[in-house]
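Hi, here's the filled form for the chain we discussed.

Project: internal
Contact: R.S.
Residues: 376
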Amino acid sequence: MRQTYRSPTSTITIIRPNKSRKTFGLRLESVDCNGHKKTDSKVFKDDETLKSVNHAFKNGIYDYNHANHLVEKLKKQLEPRFCQKISESGETLEINKANTRLFNKYWSDVYLDRDVKARTTKQAKKQFERILKLYGSTSLTGATKHEIRRVWEEFDCPHQGKVRLSTRLNALLNYAERGFTIKMKKRDRLFVDYKTYVEEQDLIILVAMAGKNEDKLALRIGFYLGLRNGEIFGLQKKDFEKKTRRLKVRRQLVAGEGYYDECKADSARDIPVPKHLVSTLEEWLNIPIEKKKLNDKKFGRRLKDLSRRCFPDDELKQISPHGLRRSFAKHYYGKGVDISGLAMLMGDKEETVRNNYLGLKLTSGMFESLKNQLEK
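And the returned structure, exactly as it came back:
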């Protein structure tokens, strides 16, 4: 019998006497939310125990029958280290099978007639998958109310994202007829959110420092038109009427998916384009669609890195693509455009523009000032 050593170190291949091959994969398995098995061989890379076993196989010390027993034994030895590395990375080793069955049944009943390619449907599925990964081996159908709530309270996530996930979690709990739901703690209404934005002079610096021409164009369009990132990359030549300087916003490019999704009725709108931005917009519309699809998701990362380099000491100016939209609102509100006009230009509700983009919330100082004025 001839035995051979084969890289990578996560596998051992033995050639039987009849010249057939037998490969042992020294990889432990985990199960995702769809019940599919996943393996991770990188965990064992450069492991001393595995190196010694591979060396023994390479030199013909072990026979084929001994290999079956040895590989299983080696897996058990390496399992604690595997679990430790998984926990350090923040992932779950295995998803509870009862949770998987619950999710599959819920999805088939509730989302059976929905468009699986729609952006909202894909987002919903990702949120459900995140819930299942969060709870791991904890059963949503069998665990106590205290255990489910404890896992949720230990979960560290931004407030708005946690609100969305709590909706998905409660949907599963209601479907399983658990008789309780997870309630989010309300934030203080006097709390002012940490919002990033730039002013016009800051935009000049960002455009000058941007490396790619596409980034320079997208920066100016985002600041002066207030479009969402997907709407910027979803613009096409037929959307712009040069004579009237009218831009029709009708679609957006779904980040990372490479396809267009029609805007909702509230978001579809017509925008007047400033004269100084016409040439910039025309240059942007002439960029091939395929090139835009490759850059829509990368633009956000490049913009964050660029703003950190330009304004290392000012965190309020270290923006994302959505920060350009907030900058648009603040820029034109300062020029005298009222909130209702901004809402029409941005394709959003007046309340959202007032609270989220302009930050005109009732702060503690404003509250005391109004109270003193009413008492006069």
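Let me know if anything looks off before we file it.
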